Amino acid sequence: MNGRNADQPRSRRTVVDQPRAATDGGGAVAWSRGYARRATSTGRRFALHLTARGGPTFLVGLVVIAVLAWAAAGWLASRPSFGGSVARIPVVALAPLLAAMLLGPSLAGADEELERGTPLPWRAWRAGHVLLAALLSAAVLSLAGLADPHTFGAYALVRNTLGHTGLVVGAAVLLGVRLAWLPAFCYGCAVYAAAPRGTDRVTAIWAWPVQPSSATVSWLVVGVLFVAGVTGYALRGAGGGHGRWPVLIRSRLSWR
Amino acid sequence: MSVTVSVRGLRVSYGRRTALDELDLDLGPGVHGLLGPNGAGKTTLMRVLATVRRPDRGQVRLLGQPLSDAVGLRSARRQLGYLPQSFGFYPRFTVREFVEYFAWLKEMPAAQIPLAVDRAIERVGLLDRADDRMKHLSGGMLRRAGIAQAIVNDPRVLLFDEPTAGLDPEQRVEFRALLRELGLDAVVLVSTHLVEDVVAACTRVSLMDAGRLVFDGLPAELIAAGGVGDSGDSPIERGYAAVLRDARTAAR
């Protein structure tokens, strides 16, 4: 230490001295003051992770979307002039899209740089995070289409949830969470606006969100999108946190 | 000096711009100041040492572990503390939850976390605000919360990138005291533009310019490098200006 340290605090109430009070026989003091709390359990860890990722907002939003989808699907199917269950296409196309967009912000913490410098096995956590979220979204949204699951009902809702989730997660890797919703939103709106009536193979590939659930090709496309998105996200993570620009715009990725 | 951080031939570039150019650096326990003009490569070096930026070339060893090896990387990360220049805070967290979250991310034993969290918050003087949400804190308090998450795991390598930005003078004095305490048994690297912090708290100082290390020595040696004719209002500012001038002249 050099000789210019005259400004070192002389008061016994410095930040340096405080921890000694808590440790040098003061561990018990700290506990008795009620500072220290219960050991961090597994449940507590999940709760912290969910809070860090905006989990409660996602869950509430998902339930709201499912209730609205259920109400809208019932109303549309009950109008004789709309053609029965086929009239539920808007619900099948839009509700999963909204749920996937809602998932976007949860794909990164507020500071990815801080988090990535920690030893947690992030690949497994990211994979688990997105798989659980997709499973939950599909399960909750499918409830809105259980009345007639085959005709633009629960099956199509599950398929579209997985497909849009794959798109959003893949976009998060390339563009970052701030823009993760954009490609899925533009694509979903474009397909819905185009409203293709055909069910041939080519149409099923590019317009899978508005295909009947019996179109096998649409499931294959969704499978590819979902696996690619989840794999990319598990391996690389989202391209930057909420306040940062995406990795695609920056030059290099992190260690791993 | 027992070397805890070793950097050899480090090269990092952003597109065509070279941020770090064949940098060699050895650091042992103590407080090391990292000075340099804007764009010198200080933050890039910090990010590489914090294991968030992969270098294009070169070898980095933290605590004897090569970062190129997955096991070594994970082991080093457990003993790292890092405060970036700016960090995105978690608005839904209280200060205590924020520090606890990072204690968990750093894989601290669960039984040690509660006390370690309170100790870290106490060390930065935020105990009275520990249960306040992050979104209700001032800029200086957020900075102190960031320092608390960096030190919660009693790291052996601590990286602070402009840690005193936003702190008031009294907090800066207290932070310097904390730095000195941390530097007793850990490598503490502090990147700063405030040369008075270096004089007051650092045992060694390194100066970077254009991605290269142009000075590495004691603060007194940097002060001695300055002359009466050099620009600056204090001896170390004059030393800083003189070393930079000489390095740039030699590079031409």
From TrEMBL, chain B:
GO function terms (MF aspect) = ATP binding
PROSITE patterns (UniProt xref): ABC_TRANSPORTER_1, ABC_TRANSPORTER_2
**Residues covered by the ABC transporter domain:** 5-235
Tell me which UniProt keywords the record has, alphabetically: ATP-binding, Nucleotide-binding, Transport
Q: According to its UniProt record, which protein family does this protein belong to?
A: Belongs to the ABC transporter superfamily.
> What name does the UniProt record give this protein?
ABC transporter ATP-binding protein
* Taxonomic source organism: Micromonospora gifhornensis
